[in-house]
Amino acid sequence: MRECSSHSLLVQSQGCEALFNCIFRCEDAWNLANELDVKSACDLALQMDLSDLVLMKHATNLDNALATDGWKGRKLVEDLKLQEAHHHRRHKPDKKAHWKDELELVVNEKPV
Fold first, then answer.
1. Alpha-carbon span 22 to 16, nearest angstrom
2. What is the rounded distance in angstroms from the CA atom of residue 92 to the CA atom of residue 64?
3. Hey, is 109 helix, strand or coil?
4. Could you tell me which of 14, 40, 65, 68 has the fewest CB atoms within 10 Å of its CB?
5. In a domain, 18, yes or no
6. Assign residue 96 a region: left if phi > 0, alpha if psi is -120 to 50, beta otherwise?
7. CA atoms within 13 A on the CB side of 20
8. Secondary structure (3-state) at 13
9. Total count of domains within the chain
10. pTM of the predicted structure, to 2 decimals
11. 27-35 and 38-46 helices cross at what angle (nearest 10)?
12. Could you tell me the residue range of the domain that residue 68 belongs to?
């Protein structure tokens, strides 16, 4: 990633993703990454192109994984739970509106 820092956002994005996948849930890989100063490569990727959402996602995940106890993935799991809750709220059918419509149909129904 350091050698190709000015060439391709794709190289940086895929490098961040690969390093994150190695570090996630593996304390030994986290220790090795810190010994090899992977944080500096991650910082370069975070400064490259803020408009590239995929790069920012992978670089941010790697940055969080490199933090103290980041290998445990607590930040990622917390973010995923928040995204899931947000998605669930946006796509959850409104039960009250459904019952309201049914009640209105019953009330307005003409007797036979």
1. 10
2. 30
3. coil
4. 68
5. yes
6. alpha
7. 21
8. helix
9. 1
10. 0.66
11. 80
12. 9-108
- What pLDDT, on the 0 to 100 scale, is given for residue 62? 92
Asked if 45 and 84 count as a contact pair (C-beta separation under 8 A), the reply is no
Q: Is residue 49 part of a domain?
A: yes
DSSP conformation letters of 14-54: HHHHHHHHHHTT-HHHHHHHHHTTHHHHHHHHHTT-TT-HH
The amino acid at residue 18 is A
Contact 23, 70 (CB under 8 A): yes
Question: Does residue 64 belong to any structural domain of this protein?
Answer: yes
Structure-token match 């607590």, residue found: 74
User: CB neighbours (10 Å) of residue 58?
Assistant: 23
Residue 2 belongs to a domain: no
Q: CA-to-CA distance for 33 and 28, rounded, in angstroms?
A: 9
